[in-house]
Amino acid sequence: MKYSKLSTFKIKKILHCFANELTAVQ
User: Fold this and answer.
1) Could you tell me which residue, 21 or 1, shows the higher pLDDT?
2) CA nearest to 24, candidates 9, 8, 12, 16
3) pLDDT tens digits, residue range 3-19?
4) Interatomic CA distance for residues 22 and 15, integer angstroms
5) DSSP character for 1?
């Protein structure tokens, strides 16, 4: 349970960084 929560947080953080990079490119 704890591990899945941590991985979900990592995925959200990666997606957020990816979105920021896309915005910066545009």
Assistant:
1) 21
2) 16
3) 788 899 999 999 999 99
4) 11
5) -
Sign of the Cα torsion 11, 9, 14, 21 reads: positive
Q: How many CB atoms lie within 10 A of CB 1?
A: 5
CA distance linking residue 22 with residue 7, whole number of Å: 23
As given in the structure block, the two tokens for residue 6 are 């941590």
pTM attached to this predicted model: 0.55
- Token pair recorded at residue 4: 């899945």
So where are the chain's domains?
A: 1-25
